[in-house]
Write a structure and sequence with these properties.
Largest sheet: 5 strands, mixed, barrel
Number of helices: 7
Low-confidence stretches: 261-266
Radius of gyration: 18 Å
Structural class: alpha/beta
Length: about 270
């Protein structure tokens, strides 16, 4: 394929993999790593100019980071798209609402001393670094990729609300309201919590590849039953948004790509 543009799409669970596959249709499969049992489903646009590599990473920061790193080592990508589900950290968020993460914060990357717990950038020095040289723990997502899903035409096609803000990410599944409320206070405009975004963000930042995180609410902040029940009951429904979100981003990605190509020829 000549001068192709590629998007890497990471999903944690099989339900999300199936949703994206059903939406995008025909694909070919390639091996990213035989030893790590990582494969990618490759979907090609009709004009052959753009491709999406869809990778099923497995749940958690380590799995997400591993899959992202393997894919980036295999191919060059114009952007990374992490899809999946999250827990709501705001009362007004409902099942199926789409969180567009403007920023990602790993909530369990902490320096803990007598004065309390302090957020620190994953993999960076904290206690031995001067205050002014400590790295920010916030990972910013790409504004251009954000625009592909926040476009007004896309908003009209999406069945639920689309909200943007901060997504906190860590290695624990938070299934109690008190824990969720604590997470909602660690940064401004925190919307949800997941278990993969920080892993993808770390790799994307190191590789200097723009990335975006789109997460659908699968469990509410304070449901009438319980958070675990919400998650079990609505996981499949929430996962269906992964396919729609991928399709909408890809459509706009191709549209922008074709526009840029025409402008270069003028």
């Amino acid at each position: 394929m000549k001068s192709s543009q590629r998007l890497l799409s990471i999903v944690a669970m099989e339900a999300e993999l199936n949703s994206v596959t059903q939406t995008l249709g025909k694909f070919r499969e390639i091996i990213l790593s035989e030893n790590l049992k990582l494969r990618a489903r490759v979907f090609c646009s009709e004009d052959g100019i753009s491709e999406i590599f869809l990778v099923h990473s497995g749940i958690g920061l380590v799995n997400a980071a591993l899959a992202t790193a393997c894919a980036l080592d295999k191919e060059k990508f114009s952007g990374i798209l992490l899809l999946g589900v999250a827990g709501a950290l705001r009362e007004d968020l409902e099942i199926g609402d789409l969180i567009v993460a403007e920023s990602v914060l790993q909530h369990d990357s902490l320096f803990c001393d007598e004065s309390g717990d302090h957020l620190m950038a994953p993999g960076s020095l904290y206690v031995s670094a001067p205050l002014q040289k400590r790295v920010s723990p916030i990972f910013e997502t790409d504004s251009n990729l954000q625009g592909l899903i926040l476009d007004s035409a896309i908003r009209r096609r999406f069945p639920k609300n689309i909200v943007k803000g901060c997504l906190v990410s860590g290695s624990r599944f938070e299934a109690n309201i008190r824990g969720k409320l604590n997470l909602s206070q660690i940064h401004t405009n925190v919307l949800g919590v997941d278990m993969e975004a920080a892993g993808v963000a770390i790799v994307a930042q190191r590789a200097q590849v723009p990335f975006l995180v789109l997460k659908t609410v699968a469990d509410r902040l304070s449901p009438a039953g319980g958070i675990t029940e919400d998650y079990k009951n609505f996981l499949t429904f929430a996962s269906q948004n992964a396919g729609l979100a991928t399709q909408l981003v890809w459509e706009n990605f191709q549209k922008n790509l074709n526009t840029n190509s025409r402008e270069k020829l003028q």
